[in-house]
Write the structure tokens for this entry.
Amino acid sequence: MNNLYTYLLMLGDNSMILGHRLSQLCGHGPNLETDIALTNISLDLYGQVRSYFQYAAKVSGNPANTEDSIAFLRYERQYLNGLLVEQPNTDFAFVILRQALFDIYHLYLLEALESSKDTQIAAIATKSIKEVKYHQRFSSSWVKRLGDGTEISHQKAQYALDTLHPYSFDLLNENAIEADMKEQGIGADLHIIKEKYQDTLKDLMVTSTLTLPDNTFAHKGGKEGVHSEHMGFILSDLQYMQRAYPNMQW
Amino acid sequence: MSKDWPLFEVFIRSKNGLEHRHMGSLHASDPEMAMENARDVYTRRQEGVSIWVVASTDITASNPKEYGELFEPAADKIYRHPTFYDLPDELKHI
């Protein structure tokens, strides 16, 4: 397996698993407007996944790989998304906080990837960045509303933040593949992104009257394929059709 | 306090140079959210390049019951239409 292929999986899997989480809300949003907004974001993310996986199939060196086989036919340990995006839709506060944490990271990541030496990755980043700017605007404005809203909404947002925050670190901590991609000028420098991320998150928490947990305990392992207990359930949903009807097409 | 968010009316301009047209309405807690909701609900298929939202309560509407006094008097005053002039052929875009 080459590092570029693995790196593309890491990029694509975040969008795919979060996109799937959001798609689970289709028809279950708190109201029609928010339902459509979340579904739109899901579709944006899936669009990005297709670009990453089409490219990944090409660089994988295995002609049997397609965007679909990469998306649907890997085993759990072969998915390389961060732990944050697989966390469940516990309630609306969890959906929004998970989205906000990811969007801040995602936007800085894409900004960095725009100047990637790999022209294909740079092109995907340039196309995705407009979508993600809106995602961040949507999720941040909701974090402010929940945090600075009623006593109950504040409480729920704070609880979601406390619960999700320890899962956000593994997106930000560089692993060996990412270090290599950075050296080659293909990948982003996560050290810089992490700093920007923490500054932006701090500002958002201040305006939202939420408190960032002091606890710096970090769950880790997502990018190495070691997932939380939710991942197996996600994949059994996601892969059902391809497993039950191999090679089926729409 | 009502449990539902207030209603907003949404106006979209489809292309530069054309006017904003009323597309429908939606619920939102404030104008900023109304703008985001309008973007998500009414521009998914490239319907527009500009959005106006206005709280429905800020619109003063004519009363359908007053149709008679408001609009019917104009019905028999066809001389108000500029259709009685002979226009020179050179005149375009009228």
